[in-house]
Amino acid sequence: MSLVERYIFKISGSAFLIALGVLTAVIWLTQAMRDFDLMTTKGQSLIVFFHITGLIIPSLLMVISPIALFIATVFALNKLNGDSELVVAASAGLSPFQLFRPFAALIVAGSLFCGVMSLWAMPWSFRALRYAISEVHTDFLTRIVRPGAFNGLDYGLYFHYRERGPGGALLGIFMLDQREPGQSNVYLAERGIATKVGDQNYLVLQTGTIQRQDKGSAAPAIVMFDSYALDLDRFGSRADSAPLRPRERSTWDLLHYDTSEPYVKLDEGHFRAELHERFTAPLYALAMGMIAFAALGAPRTTRQNRGVAIGAAVLAALLLRVGGFGASALMAREASAVPLAYALPLGGAAVAALYAFRSAFRHPFGRARAVYAAA
Q1: Which strand ranges, in their side-by-side order, compose the sheet holding 200-214?
Q2: What are the transmembrane regions (predicted)?
């Protein structure tokens, strides 16, 4: 890069990092407040709070990166033009392609960063979040729940134990699970011990009964047991007890998911949509950067209003992103919508590039027509 190109890259790169950091911090703060009950009602430490809420940052970065790239490009070009630096550079012979080079480097870097977030970091963070929440529920159940009190662990799920015995065992356990519509399960056990097998947490109930009452049945079904392992993931949301969701699976798993798996067969459309959303996310960063450059890349005097160009760029970027969300929803229903999901960002980037370099494409044809007319 030349000195001018490094100067432009420094301005746009700094703007990208600032926009990315500020937007991520603001949105993370609004999301983190939803999980503030980790400390207030579930008795977790500040470290656990930041650990769990911090795991949503990769997904935020994936969504925010294209927006931050758009903001940075608009800001840098508007600043350069406002200081008359674009006009001076163009007068000194800086071509549109030379002006685009530092922005191209930023757009490629931003797209690669978005790709890393979408293809690797985001699914990893969602899996880690699943296990972290499971640990919180286990800790809440075995250490924080007070003996002798009826504690609501979830909507329709209540837990009670009489006292704590030697070795941390829970004595006199009662649990009522009414989360399933039309079904009620009552667990009674003399004692229970929390244990962990691999990444799964269990509460092993000893010497007790399970009473299942279905809606419309006259009498409950009673099952007696000497030992019964209760999956503690069930104490979280209903999604925690299900198989790995599409966003929790690695990109490799989504590329080779088993269509015979009952959970996949039930919702194969979301697996397909999630896979292609991960690959199209970097393309939207590319398109957003190109739209911003196409709108503001041409030098103008300070007397010319750039508000219309900025407004048009914002509108075009907004319509493109809304169209992307629509394509994702359509992919979940129809496999034939997959090409559309790729055509939108690639087409947006191509149209923006043609508009940005229209003068460079037009001049050769203009010179050719002049030569032909002279002949």
Answers
A1: 151-154, 157-164, 170-177, 183-197, 200-214, 221-231
A2: 7-29, 49-78, 99-121, 279-296, 308-331, 337-357
Task: Give the integer Cα–Cα distance in Å for 288 and 324.
Answer: 12
Question: Which distant-in-sequence residues (6+ apart) come within 8 Å of 87 by Cβ?
Answer: 81, 299, 300, 301
Nearest to 71 by CA among 5, 21, 119: 21
Residues 97-149 have pLDDT tens digits of 888 999 999 999 999 999 999 999 999 999 888 877 766 666 656 555 677 87
3-state secondary structure of 213: strand
From first CA to last CA, the distance across the chain in angstroms is 41
Q: What is the pLDDT of residues 56-106, one digit of tens each?
A: 899 999 999 999 999 999 999 999 888 878 888 878 778 888 889 999 999
Q: Give the span between the Cα atoms of 127 and 58, in whole angstroms.
A: 12
Count of helices and strands (H, E) across the chain: 13, 6
Residue 99: count other Cβ atoms within 10 Å of its Cβ.
23
Distance from C-alpha of 273 to C-alpha of 327, rounded to nearest angstrom: 9
Tally of CA atoms within 13 A in the half-sphere of 147 that contains its CB: 10
CA distances from 63 to 53, 111, 125, 147 (A): 17, 11, 14, 44
- For residue 176, list its beta bridge partners: 158, 186
Residue located via tokens 């009674």: 188
Length of the chain: 375
Domain map (residue ranges) of the chain: 146-237
